[in-house]
Write a structure and sequence with these properties.
Strand order of the largest sheet: 1-2
CATH superfamily of the largest domain: ABC transporter type 1, transmembrane domain
Number of helices: 19
Helix content: over 70%
Largest sheet: 2 strands, parallel
Order of helices and strands: HHHHHHHHHHHHHHEHEHEEHHH
CATH topology of the largest domain: ABC transporter transmembrane region fold
Shape: elongated
Strand content: under 5%
Number of domains: 2
Number of strands: 4
Amino acid sequence: MTSRLGRGGLLARTLTLVRPRWPMVALAALLLVMTTATALAGPWILRYAVDEGLVEGRPDTGVVTRAGLLYLGLALAGLVLSRLQVELVGRIGEWFVRELRSRTVDHVMSMSVRYFDRTPAGVLVSRMTADVDALQDAVQLGVVPFTQAVLTLVFLVAVLVALSWQLALVCVLPAAALVAATVWFRRASRSAFAQVRDRVADTVTELTERLAGLRVVRAFRQEARTTASLRGRSRRQLGANVTAVRIQSVYLTAMELATVGSIAAVLAAGGALAARDAVSVGTLSAFVLYLLLAFEPVQSLSFLVTLLESAAAALRKIYGLLDEPVDLRDATQDELAGALASVGAGSWLDSLPDGLATQVGEGGSLLSAGERQLVALARVCLLGADVVVLDEATSGLDPGTEKLVEAAVIAATADRAVLVVAHRMSTARGADRVVVVDTGVTEIGTHDELLARGGRYAALFTAFENPARSEASPAR
């Protein structure tokens, strides 16, 4: 129940979901670009102030004042833009999470009872709680910061090259090492966080089932086994989390080394270039400040990529649930009535107050045992299966109802291969081949052949035909 979509497929499908909010998304993107630009203007203003206003021998306080006022104005504008952008993205994120949760609940409500029989309730609870919550955290805390971090790095690369292509070349080797570390981290973290989501689902499933069946656990005195099982799942979840944290710590260390190496190399090369007047003091100062500004988004990418990988794993599971096919029943009213009539239940159907619309309760609880059997046999006829398995089809029925059900069995199984599990000899008598099981297979043959052998089958048949004689025989 996990989607196999890659990152591109996940992104495309998610963008399809947010299509009704495209204008808001476009406005949020514009605000994000403007906020990032204002945040990066500071070092460039400092470069202007140093090179134009703090020239040795003739400092210009007017230039410094204008630079300070410009910085203050851009900072205030950035605060306003940031506030608008955060509020807008928050609205989009909350709407998206609500829409996804609603679609998940609606889809689960449309699934057949058979789906719930084979799917643990804890898995569904995990999808609609833990996975959706992880996605909500990613939307609120990860998507915008990640986009802003990437956008900041793109702007910084352009600004650094514009300031000094010579100093920018010095940063190529550390940047290449950082890119390699990021590629490794993405591959390793994807698998690690998929394991984390699986372990979380396992733990939630175990807790849900154990709490739901707590009376049974207590009745059979299975508290110790249940506790051991829960501890085992918790240990496996802890192991998955530790692996993910270890991968993250390695990536964080690599980023710090690359950033520190870049700054050290730039200071050494910049000092040499400044001594030859190849770069100004203001340019070198701005370049170093921009490198320091790059450290924060690069460092935050470790956490953000981790958060987004966890969200991607949760999103795959949610999409996997949404992709589960709905069990559509498309038989017409005439086909349903015809199937019931073919097993001799037509008159019974006519006697029902609402006909085919009669409420029968969960699992047919409002029907008698014989009526439930007739409905099941009618479904066999409607399905048209080539192989039919009947398990105690006539057990627990009164003689009159048994005759009716036996006739329905004959009608429903015509021209079909039928495997019958039964204790009643009247059911076995009409079989083409009888297999007697008594601590393993003891006899195989037709009804007449097994009677002639006088073995276990013959004894059972005699007891069935003459119950009074069978009860008296042990006393003799």
